[in-house]
Design goal:
Rna Polymerase Sigma Factor, Chain: A; 12 helices
Amino acid sequence: MRKYNIANYVRYKKDVEAQLKKVRKPVDGDYTYLTDKEIQINFLPLVETLARKQSTSDQASGVLSINDLLQEGALGLCAAVSKLDRDLLIKSDDQEKTLKSFLSKRIKGAIRRAVDINRGDIRIPEHKLNEIRKNPKDEKMVAMFFNSVFSSIDAKPNDDENMAYQVIDKSEPYNIALLNTYLLSLMKTHLTPVQYDVLRMSFGLDCDKKSANTIAEKLGINVNTAHVRISQIKRDAIHELIANVDSSQVLDYL
């Protein structure tokens, strides 16, 4: 992560501290009487905590500063609070825990999307290409490929010594349609029909992207936590691909 503007960060911290002193706090853990803006201010420290946990080994390192991540996280916080279901909040036994769980997921999503948008293409150094050819079962390289393609999956390689993450590729971007076709062929070979359909619809490989609830409905997954089940299927599918695909099969795209 590139060096950030200290003066701007200090101003941000002072502004947050001043707002926290003025804003109303929950009484006995009851957040229901607070306005959306008051909830947003109360959870600004959560934004900074999550922003600082963002991996510095992502390709966006050197592009986004901590100030950028704080801004994106704050926007995610505002959007999340506006969608808050207060009826469910009232029924919660621990409102603070419920809010943190609800908001954290959306703040992290906002930060991750900002990183993905600023993610550059990468070029594998020649010595790494030779290393891959000698070790076609190199799971780290395969994981790097699939985690970069399916970038909304939480689990990503976190290897600061992996030079493949440090060199920016200035070449022409690859053909998305061709990549999607190739991905579909790999998925058909190694995944179950359910895993195949979940990944295909989640990332819009041959159709428009669909929400987790829509996918669950199409696949007949009728449970209260359908979106959680879809996320789990996505993660399992990625792991299955990583375990069964040789790095030589994805070398041209790395």
